[in-house]
Description:
Layout: H1 2-32, H2 39-42, E1 46-50, E2 55-58, E3 71-77, E4 82-85, E5 88-92, E6 102-111, E7 117-127, E8 132-134, E9 140-141, E10 146-148, E11 151-153, E12 160-163, E13 173-176, E14 179-182, E15 188-197, E16 203-213, E17 222-225, E18 231-232, E19 244-250, E20 257-259, E21 266-268, E22 275-284, E23 291-299, E24 306-307, E25 312-315, E26 322-325, E27 327-328, E28 334-338, E29 344-347, E30 350-353, E31 360-371, E32 376-386, E33 390-392, E34 396-400, E35 402-407, E36 412-414, E37 420-425, E38 431-435, E39 438-443, E40 447-457, E41 463-473
Parallel strand pairs: 1-7, 9-16, 17-23, 25-32, 34-41
Antiparallel strand pairs: 2-5, 3-6, 4-5, 6-7, 8-11, 10-14, 12-15, 13-14, 15-16, 18-21, 19-22, 20-21, 22-23, 24-27, 26-30, 28-31, 29-30, 31-32, 33-36, 35-39, 37-40, 38-39, 40-41
Amino acid sequence: xxxxxxxxxxxxxxxxxxxxxxxxxxxxxxxxxxxxxxxxxxxxxxxxxxxxxxxxxxxxxxxxxxxxxxxxxxxxxxxxxxxxxxxxxxxxxxxxxxxxxxxxxxxxxxxxxxxxxxxxxxxxxxxxxxxxxxxxxxxxxxxxxxxxxxxxxxxxxxxxxxxxxxxxxxxxxxxxxxxxxxxxxxxxxxxxxxxxxxxxxxxxxxxxxxxxxxxxxxxxxxxxxxxxxxxxxxxxxxxxxxxxxxxxxxxxxxxxxxxxxxxxxxxxxxxxxxxxxxxxxxxxxxxxxxxxxxxxxxxxxxxxxxxxxxxxxxxxxxxxxxxxxxxxxxxxxxxxxxxxxxxxxxxxxxxxxxxxxxxxxxxxxxxxxxxxxxxxxxxxxxxxxxxxxxxxxxxxxxxxxxxxxxxxxxxxxxxxxxxxxxxxxxxxxxxxxxxxxxxxxxxxxxxxxxxxxxxxxxxxxxxxxxxxxxxxxxxxxxxxxxxxxxxxxxx
Length: 491
């Protein structure tokens, strides 16, 4: 009978051992199946996206009365990515982890005293792409704008950009909100050094190089004049970094003239009376494609010159004619014209303005002289037409007798130009003057209804006036002393 009891006990122990082994195997299967869904056991997980090589740390919080009794460990730790130090959990994702890989970590908090309890937190780590950067800036012409947005991607979230430590952006460029913008100020090779930072701290540097080339210049239209004398146009200066070559692209050079393809200079001489216009075009051979042009007119007669050194000053609706003569050099027969301007006309080089309504100062009237051989010169005459002059302000000024007197507020003057104010009166002993646009008056004796005329005169000779009545009053004083009077006393 005793033997049977022993056999039964041994079988019970064996069954319990087998059950424990199966339970341990189940846990190991859970742990070995990386990324397996364990929500049925531990509830919905907290999912954290994390890039290869990243580290995650977490110190859980507990009720304050339990903290001293708790032990933190890992119930599930896929691929041993997690570790515990004290109550802090650290997860290190392998640098070679494939994107999309999931790691389960189940944090276990347990205590045996004063009561026995166990709680779990289930965290799933999903491996996402690490940080990658790219970008290019095309070569530009000086004066062009850069508007460059580098590309930075990370499965961890939004990437931020900074200028790489120890580096600086080329002069003229700034970095703001992940975009490099501005106008580089220097020529030649330029490099933008940037650092991308992903959430979690991963960084990568990006170096983008480009070259700034000189901007090609052509030239304003130029006329060279020859009558059997050597002449040449101005050289066109471009920096050597763009390699400019010039060619005639419109018109034909007259006999006796040639073009220097390197400098764009047209030179030569001719005894033929003629006027020929050609267009030369420069083409760059380095950097972004550029072209520039210049028109050159070759004439065979003396250079025409005009002098418009005088100005015209008049006023609105002035019936008196104002004029200036335009001085010109000898040449073939001339014709004259003038730009549209109220009351302006020209005859044989004399510019006239009469009855103009074009109110304004220093307005430009353009006079054009053209020779029979096609030379054309212009000059500008400054024409000022004053608006009608008027003055207004205080019409009464009350002052106290004495040396200080008093003054009006400043008068309002409209129209005219270069206006000056003056004051006059026929009242003996009344001193008047103008200062800061105000009438100042003083008189030692009293009197009223004194008339002062304030006159304004413009540079063109207009006048306008207004009258001010000046009243001079005594200083307030007692003119008697207390004497006699009634005495009131109690009875």
